[in-house]
Amino acid sequence: MLTYTFAHGEKKPLYEQLTDFIKMDISTGVVPAGTKLPSKRAFAEHLGISTITVETAYQQLIAEGYIHSVPRSGYYVSDIDPNRSGLSAASKQKAPAMISEEPEKQNKWMIDFSGNETAPDTFPFQTWAKLIREVLSGQTKELVKTSPGIGIRSLREAIATHLYHFRGMNVDPGCIIIGAGTEYLYGLLIQLLGFDRTYGVEDPGHQKIPMIYEQNGVLCRHLSIKEPGITPEMLEQEHVDILHISPAHHFPTGRVMPIRQRLSLLKWASEGKDRYIIEDDYDSEFRMVGQPIPSLLASDHSGKVIYMNTFTKTLVSTVRISYMVLPRKLMQLFRERLSFYSCTVSNFEQYTLAAFLEKGYFEKHLNRMRTYYHNKRDRILKLLTESPLAPSLRITEADAGLHFLLLLDMNMTDQSFTDLLAAEGIRITPLSDYYHDPSDAPEHIFIVNYSSLSEEHLPDAAEKMAQLLRKE
Known about the structure:
Blueprint: H1 14-27, H2 40-47, H3 51-64, E1 67-70, E2 74-77, H4 82-85, H5 89-93, E3 111-112, H6 125-138, H7 140-143, H8 153-167, E4 176-179, H9 182-193, E5 198-203, H10 208-215, E6 219-224, H11 232-237, E7 242-245, H12 259-270, E8 276-280, E9 305-310, E10 322-325, H13 328-337, H14 347-358, H15 361-385, E11 393-396, E12 403-408, H16 414-423, E13 426-427, E14 429-430, E15 445-449, H17 458-471
Parallel strand pairs: 3-13, 5-6, 5-7, 7-8, 8-9
Antiparallel strand pairs: 1-2, 4-10, 9-10, 11-12, 12-15, 14-15
């Protein structure tokens, strides 16, 4: 009779141990096909365990196909095809290989001019926690109800009100769609507008946008924004159907699209049935000089502009709540084709953000953050212009957004400069990294994101940069 030794101190139950022992003997041929197994009672007495343990093990083996039961006869080993089972003593003992994961990024930089995270002390944690408690205690029924696919009504109404007061945009809450990040919303747009369309993106531009389009299998054209900028003639030549732009504050150059170009692009879109413009208004709230630049949507009278924005820049970089405003015609099409999608933002976050907007906390937070970033930008500019690096630098496009351009007077290549700085613990990104063809980029221009820039280490970084230029 089969004899096994059990490890009674193990966490694994006895029936699992017995199951594994019998499976091993069957798969390795120790117990061949057709062998009759001991009765439950006799096997239990022989092994010194309960009959229930043996019965549970037999039922598991039957479920997995290792043995079968013959009425009024007993339990028999099933015929297992060794070519398909692929089991051996060695393979049974070998643990499956673990999928290697990308290690979490560690901050190895003394100073990072490329980071765009939010400083932890700027997020209104106390207010947010207070609103969460109010939502949990006062909206319990709403929290467990399924959210509409486009997001809860109160949040969409709050966003529409904010856009009206801050951007002068008269938006129907029924045309707003909430999503967990703009990347998700881009995917929805591609499904809505069509995989057979040609999408045009700004060059230079945010690196992730063309990657999203290309990974969705659509044709993507890189359109140069060099003078005279993107023109209707360029769009016609490239057969572009959908144009993705950031007219209020282009990344990374920081330019504002002039009104003449805006009107010409709106006219181009209105002249084609399937032409649309995606307006990415990612950081319009942070214009440091003058009034906010009017949105393209506010000038659109043909229903051709899709407006997109996010709370990632205004609240915190890890709050993945974004939204888009569709023209009425597209919204109707969305309801017909894509309304089966569930909203990707939890009710807890949606109701909390809605309260944050409705009760005026968001407006107060924006005002505070504008002052905070304005002062931080001024301190950083002062540190740079009074540092040893000052004779070799020129700063441009510092009036809007949370980055500016740093032009350096030097002869070495941008790559050599960034490599030498990296060896010193300083990370900085040249403008050329954002070009589809880096050879088209002007040289010696670098991006400075200052939202999370360390002012403490900035003087040392400027000194090291100046030393490199002096050695050159």
